[in-house]
Fold Periplasmic chaperone PpiD.
Amino acid sequence: MDGLNPRKVFSLLFIIGIAVVFTLQFGPGSNGFGSSGGGQAPGASAVATVNGKEIPLRDFSMAWSRQMNFLRSQGNPIPESVARQFGLDKQVLDRLVNAELLAQSAERHGIAPSDEELRKLIHENTDFHSKEGVFDFNRYQQVLRDFYRRTPQEYEQELRRQMAAQKMIDVVRTGAVVSDDEVRARYEKEGNQAKLVFARFLPTMYADKVPAPTAAQLAAFQKAHEKEIADYYAANSFVYNVPERIRARQILVKVAPDATAEQKAQAKAKAEGLRKELEGGKDFATLAKASSDDDATKLKGGDLGWVERTTWDPALANAAFALKAGEVTQPVESALGVHLVKVEEKKEAQNKKLDDVKGEIATSLYKQEQAKGLAKAEADKALAAAKAGKPLKEQFPVPAGQQPALLRFEAETKPEAVETDSFTAQGDSVPHLGPAPELVKATFEAKGPVVLDQVFTVGEANIVAQVVEREKPDTAGFDKRKEELRTQARQAKQIELTESFLKSLKKSGNVVTNTEAIDSVLGSAG
């Protein structure tokens, strides 16, 4: 995937993934695409309408569950709340909308799979295989009836539409023709490569070396930095004005959005039974691990951490915040199901004025300023030593067999020599550092391995760097990578064509989404 940025890699995965979109989105329990009046907002049971066709809530719910299960199977068991913070729910919805747009476009263009292609796909689905590993028609009918909840006609019609969507993608991709000049231009960019070793000097590394200011120093600093102190207070008012909070645990008995009254009553009865176990002396965390349906907190004994009232469903918040530390709510219903919440600890609201914390802020800013000066001075010393012939790896060695703290995503307590992978001049980022346009510019102005002759600023860090490898494009290198680069260029163009095509479908069509319906499925995710 050299030369493809993360956004384009994600798009390429969509192109590849659309081939199996029906197996991911139309598995057991899915309900296909329904219909509604053109241009109307989605009903309560739909997450979107695409040119008048509804994407049912259940389809989104199943696609979301499969997405989360896929992440878990890949060793990434992230909580649903975190997945939503990264916009994964919007990506899942977008894939459903794109699939529907493509299926509709295929219908308009008369694109459809053959009966033989449909038959082959169904026969390859292991859900329908016998114990001997071959397609079994009786099992096919049974699985459709008991798990997919479809008739063969309904299921096959859905597969046809999704296969047609893939064929529509294939048609679009055929326009991705790459000339020799484009391949050569790609090589000129990608063949211009470098590798760095750098060390970071952060103010936080030197904060403990800054002595507390004297009364006279603090008074002088406070007088000279009144605006900065006021700005700091305004930007961090959430630290000084903290609402009431509780540290809580929960046990959740999940209830599906389309649950019947009987199913809701059963869930409530189960929660009441669990509460009786707690009254009998059962430990809340132990019971949560054994009985909670909240995957995000179950393994942590239902631990929710510190919670503010406004982040919860009002009924749940009112019940929990009325308790004393150590008490447990009665069963409380929400869009997710039925909850039991135990309050472990409570903190009252805080409301500190600027005058109350002016000295505290001034001390903090004074130390930050002094630490920045120390970090810059240490970076200057390291640069001078590197220029005098002492490489960064000698000055700031990493213990044998370990990676630098930066690569372990741990807090850096001292400068360490970090070696990058090879990178190109195409962007303005340096591996492991991120955007650093001045550093990239200086790197590619270098003719060969050399210590770069200035300290660079990247965020709050002072960077000292040396070029350890420098590669320039040449004819031999081009001949060696020509076909690889042609493939990459074609993939990039396929992505651009697909994105452009989908954008045009959305622009000319009518897509209306229903975020409230999504919230009803996912709730606050723990």
